[in-house]
Amino acid sequence: MKKFFLLLIFCFATLNIFAQESAKLRYENGKSLFREGRYALARENFETVLETENYGGAYAELASYYYALSSLRLGELDRAKSMYLQILNKYPDWPYIDEVKYGLADAYFQSGNIFEAVEMLKSIENKNLREEGRNMKMYYLLAVSDLSYLTELLQKYPKDKDLAILLAERSYLQPLYEQDRNLLDFLVKEYDLDAERYNALGGLRNIKKDEYDVAVMLPFQSDRFRGAKTKKNFVMDLYEGIKIAIDSLERNGVNIKLFAFDTKVDSLHTAKIIESGDLDRMDLIIGPLYEGPFKAVSQFGFDKKINVIHPLSDKVEYITENPFSYLLKSSYVTQAMNAANYAAQNLNRNKNYMIFYSDNNRDSLMAATYRKYLVDEGFTNLIFRKVEVDEIQESMDFLAKMNDDRVFKVAEDSVGHIFLATHDKRLIAKALSTLDIRDEKIPMITTDEIFDISTLSYDQVERLGVRIISTDYVDRENGTFDSFRRFYIGKTGTLPSKYLCLGFDLMYYFGTQMENNGKYFQLEIDDQYFEGQLTPAYNFFQSNDNRYTPIIQFVDAKLLLPDQIEDLKYEPINRDK
């Protein structure tokens, strides 16, 4: 019997030695396949080792680790994470446990579990591996474009300076009109970041003078305007308004010296003006009007650090990359944001709304911006529809369709308002005629192209409660306008045009800003709305376009701003009465 037990022990020992040898061979074969990049076959060998060793032999930890790493290389992230977690639970004291944490963090990053990945990297103790983990974290986080997500991540790990730097970089790389300057200022101060690196103006120092030189670059003698009196008047009226403002400023002790340059709507001619050196001494440049010349002067302004203002455009592209380039008006992106803010405050009784937009970049971006803002305000977008020019006729017909009982298929209480993001007056006209068929009003917000529709009566616009985004709006209810109108009629015998008023307010506002805040007024400008002399308001705090957008409405045959109207809340007609 004793011999039997000895034989049995010998057999078990032999089998164990054989198993260990087999495990060793399998493990070494797996490693060889792994080095060759044959991860699937390698993992099969490591799996066999684990089955042989029953997770308790000499190769268990290593086979488990390489099994997880092979799965990671194969992109089978759930398998990799599962095995890494098993190793952490079973072998927490394994000398290479930091390698496991590193691999698990990698799997988390690839799965999109960023919070878990960062948490895992923070638990690594090995100094060299922590540095590698830092590099891996930055590699994956560079692909994250959602600033709110990065902000949330930094709030959870406020001591992680890498996250602060990444958030600052992401914020700084945003177009100027989208940058959160308050956030950047906080990050610079809180994490001791390079202030000049994240300052759009590059550490610019202000200059205050007794007299400021201002260039006006307009197509005064363009062939395009010869024989087109109204076009010529618009240029000359703009210039005349600027000159009248300079006279008014001078009476208030603000000294502006004006220099006029004729651009002739010609990029080559504009280039010659730039090359002449006559613009080098300027403190401010107004214009040019057209894209080619304006881009050339804008680049010149960037190179020479001279502020350049476009007096008429709302193109956000003009201010995206250049901190010295300004729009007098709101850009079309800002217009959409302000229109959405208006709706959130004044059209919030019914939070269901529809968006229709024209097939171009400008209007589609307005529509997308509007929708994004109202989502955050808890509104529900029922329709987001691009309308081709040849689809105008049927684009909104469904709003006027009735069932057999003569009841509108789109119920009167189901839509709170419509945003029509278009500069196509044909679409605006069709939309209004469609809405006019309905008894109850569905408020619509649209652009001031509505004023160019010759067949449209203002009574119809007032009856439908249309709100109009009008960046050219001159506030004729303003007492200052009445005084200006009487002055101008007395001087010329004619009424002041819209462009003359815009030119006046442009020069008066920026002349005042330079007097109060210096050549680089943007360095010291306050976060408040400044009332215009003839137009409603201006705010350029941390912005290169006007943050104020007039949203106007016909009331009693007058175009009024919201604060001039006692009650903007619309009341749908009760069709049962």
From TrEMBL:
Keywords: Signal. It comes from the Bacteria. It holds the Pfam family TPR_6. This is Uncharacterized protein. Residues 1-19 form the signal peptide. The keyword Lipid metabolism does not apply. InterPro entries: Peripla_BP_I, TPR-like_helical_dom_sf, TPR_rpt.
